[in-house]
Amino acid sequence: MNILIVGGTGTIGTHLVHSLSKQNHKIFLLSRNPEKYYKKFNQNISLIGWDTDNSNLLEDIDVVIKLSGESVLKFWTKKIKKRILSSRVNITKDLKKFLEINHINPKVIVNASAVGYYAKQDAIYSGSVDEFSSNGDTFLANVCKANEESCNIFTNDGIRIVHLRIGLVLTKEFYNLVKFTPHMGTKNNFFPWIHIDDVVGFIEFSMINDIKGPFNLVGPNPTTHQQFNPIVIPIRFLRNIIPMTEMLLYGYKTIPKRTLESGYKFKFVDVKDAISSFKK
Fold first, then answer.
1. Of the candidates 117, 251, 115, which has an alpha carbon nearest to the alpha carbon of residue 190?
2. Cα separation of 229 and 245, whole Å?
3. Alpha carbon distance 212, 108 (integer Å)
4. Residues 6+ away with beta carbon under 8 Å from 187
5. Residue 226 near residue 186, CB atoms below 8 Å
6. Which of 85, 86, 195, 199 is placed for a possible disulfide with 268 were both Cys, Cβ 3.0 to 4.6 Å?
7. pLDDT tens-digit profile of 156-195?
8. 0.90 cut: is pTM over it?
9. pLDDT higher for 204 or 9?
C-alpha cells in the first residue's frame, strides 16, 4: 500500500514506520521540516514538505495517517494552548488542501485523538465510559472533540474516517522514565494504558478492515493506579516513601468496546505482560 503519514516523526510514528517498512509498504512522511529527519529513517522512506506539488508521485496514496499534534506536556500558556489546538484542528484544513493539490484520494484517513475526550474538570470519576459516551468538559476534552470534528471535511469525499482515542502509551522509554519516580494519578482512578505494539497493530488493522468512527485504544483489562504502581515500582520500600502525585488526573474506567467488537486481537491484554515486555 502507499501510505502518507502526517506527524510521523514522534514516538507512535517512529514505531509505526518501522513496522510498516518491514511489510514493503511505500511510505511518505509529510513534515514541516523534512531535512531534519533524513538521518532518522532509512532511504526507503520518502520525506516530503508541505509545499510539495507532485501528483505523479502521490496520487496513488491509499491511506493517510494523521498523528500530528503539539505536545501537551508543557506549561499551558495561552500561546501553547493555541498551538495544541491548532496543531490538531487547523492542520486538518491544511491537509485537505495538500490532498487536493496532489490529487490524492485515499480510501481511509486514520486520525489520532485521545481518551482525554472523556476528561472532566472536577476529576471525579464513577462508572465507565466507552466510545458511545459523551465528551468531557476540560480543555483537552474540547481539543479532542474539535480534532475529531475537523475531519468531517473529508466525509463528503467518501473517505472512511477512523478516530483513535489513545490512552497513555507504554513504551520502553516510558518504563525507564517512571520505574524509579513517583507514580501518577489518584490510586482508585483508572490508568488508561495501551502498549505501543497495540497502537501500531490497530492502525494497521484499521487500514485493511472496513471500520470507521471512534475507537478507544486502551488495554482491555482496566487497571487502577493503585494496581499499576507496584508493577512499575516493584521495590516495596520505594513505594512507601514515594508519594502518589496528581500529575495524571484522568481516571475513568475506559472500555475499548468498539475496538473489541471490530475483531482486533490485542497483543497485550494484561498490564503485567505489557510492562514485562520492556524488561527483556
1. 251
2. 11
3. 9
4. 224, 225, 226, 229, 244
5. no
6. 195
7. 889 999 999 999 899 887 655 555 455 554 555 777 889 9
8. no
9. 204
- Spatial distance between the Cα atoms of 1 and 246, rounded to a whole number of angstroms: 43
| Residue 23 near residue 67 (C-beta atoms within 8 A) | no
Cell of 241: 516513601
Nearest Cα neighbor of 181 from 134, 266, 245, 261 is: 245
Contacts (Cβ under 8 Å, ≥6 apart) of 137: 119, 120, 121
Q: For every residue of the chain, which 3-state class applies, written as one string? A: CEEEEECCCCHHHHHHHHHHHCCCCEEEEEECCHHHHCCCCCCCEEEEECCCCCHHHHCCCCEEEECCCCCCCCCCCHHHHHHHHHCCCHHHHHHHHHHHHCCCCCCEEEEEEEHHHHCCCCCCCCCEECCCCCCCCCHHHHHHHHHHHHHHHHHHHCCEEEEEEECEEECHHHHHHHCCCCCECCCCCEECEEEHHHHHHHHHHHHHCCCCEEEEECCCCCEEHHHHHHHHCCCHHHHHHCCCECCCCCCCEECCHHHHHCCCCCCCCCHHHHHHCCCC
